[in-house]
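#struct-pred

JT: dropping the chains for the assembly here, can someone run the whole complex?
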Amino acid sequence: MIQHCYESSIWIKQFENSNEFNQDVLNTTKAIRAMTPEPIADHNVDLWVSDNMHIIRDRFIDGFEALCLEYNETSDFDVDSMNMVNPMKYGDFKSCHTHDVIDAFGVYYLNESNEGGKLRLYDPRFLNKKSFSKQTYIEIKPKTGLMVVAPYYIWHEVTPYLGKETRYSLVCNMVFNNVD
Ligand SMILES: [Fe+2]
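RK: done, full complex below.
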């Protein structure tokens, strides 16, 4: 019989917010950016500086908890130690990578991107042919209020962003406590 092996589960959720909420979170993010030295994406920052940012934090926690449930992992984790603001300007991209120190990563988009800047999440198996692989990656178009949470080993990249306005996202990394 067919058994499903080596599946990779990813949590994706589109939140519908008021314009006021979206604008407030964007303004707070820009204020954090203004206080942080460049390159900002290399700096750990405290994102949870307002009530609305705490709502985003709770959403990240919901996503990480759902992922833990899916993988039978404990929900004893930390989401406060390694977080970033990630602004993308015209031409910016991120090459394909995984993470090592953290256990899972999450991204939350603050504005839409119609011109590139897509998140590609790859099948983590080592593939050198296309046979027997239904889909080698999924591609996610950033949209305001969209959150993606995935295990550290998922290869991912961001395609070149070609929009005129700076596109903002928040990155929240999760680390398990007391893992032997
Ligand atoms: Fe990453």
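JT: nice. Residues 97, 99, 105, 156 surround fe (ii) ion (CB under 6 Å). The mean pLDDT is 93.
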